[in-house]
């Protein structure tokens, strides 16, 4: 039992450090987010931060990983309710964008980190999106198009929105979500007849 408490305590301290890194990077940028400043933001020492993370890069990696994990969980819950390719695609776009709206500070911090360290060539979100599009084509719900190009275009719409949506909660953000989903559905030929 004591080891569980210690594990919970360590996990809580790591979470505090990640949250502090998010706040600091969002507010002041990556260049200002040294381990020492992140530790101070978390109300702890640099030594404690380095006990939990080997270096700044590992801490930055946790900021990025926690955002992607939370995003997958958020979207996964919503996508389970979809029963048709059209619903899956609409929910995919809407849930991605709503996640950005609801997690703006973390999204901005992650973007700043990725801009600093670079992004790998292969986007892991493209293959499952491409498969979703191909399923819709096979079922005759979507028109003919290159699924790879369409998947990249949809991801570009979502990823670029992450630069514009944080701070637009409420009607303006919801308008963007609805318009973006309608745009994607029109592009794949799955918009309702009255929306074309």
Automatic annotation (TrEMBL):
Do you know which SUPFAM superfamilies this protein is assigned to? Homeodomain-like, Tetracyclin repressor-like, C-terminal domain
The portions of this protein that span the membrane are none
Q: Which GO terms describe its molecular function?
A: DNA-binding transcription factor activity; transcription cis-regulatory region binding
Q: Which UniProt keywords apply?
A: DNA-binding
Q: Does the keyword Repeat apply?
A: no
| Keyword DNA-binding appears in the UniProt entry | yes
Matches recorded under Gene3D superfamilies: Homeodomain-like, Tetracycline Repressor, domain 2
Entry-linked Pfam families: TetR_N
Q: What sequence ranges are listed for the domain HTH tetR-type? A: 11-71
User: Which residue intervals are the DNA-binding region?
Assistant: 34-53
What's the name of the protein?
Answer: TetR family transcriptional regulator
